[in-house]
Design a protein that fits this description.
- There is one protein chain.
- This protein is of the alpha+beta class.
- 45% of the residues lie in helices and 17% in strands.
Amino acid sequence: MESMTANIGGVTESLKNQMHNLEKKFQNHPTMESTPMSYANTVKSPNNLREIIKEARNEEQQEDRDKKSRETNIIIHGIPDKKFINQEEEEKWNKEFSNKLISDLKITVKKKQTLRLGTFKENNRRPIKVAFATIKDKESVMKNLKNLKGVEGYEKMSITDDRTKAERELIKSWAIKAKERNAEEPDGSNVIWRVRGSPESGIYLKKFVIKRPASQ
């Protein structure tokens, strides 16, 4: 028991932060129905603490595996969709599209797979996932996107990394913050707030000053 108490007493600041981040998720945990969730009262119950730490670690490991499985992929948005008569026709189109994309990028890389994500719907533009053989291949694509500027067929296209659900939710939350910040700007303001950074390097809002046309 002394050893257990010593371990609990030596909980790091990092663990405190994990506890804070998990507070909402575990506030209705069955073993804690009668006790409000907080770092202070949780450490008094070694079983609760072990359970929360174990689940936090499992989630972290799952997120790492998910990131690893996506690290050679890109997601393409904005390309017009179409309905195919069968799976073979769709796979043929996907292959031809990604081959043309790589040709227009003026690079040489190896692909593993190209597929539309989701179910076809009229007037919808399902994203396209392209998986490359290596991270280097994927990075080559991202670095050479400038070669698509002005090329017909890519006007409304955007290409992003293949993000995990947690990363997408994080990016979305910052997009909402940017929208709220812009709404707070007074009428006629020449300031616009945009999201910059990435989940890896850190996400933040950056202020831009735009030029407005002179009034007549």
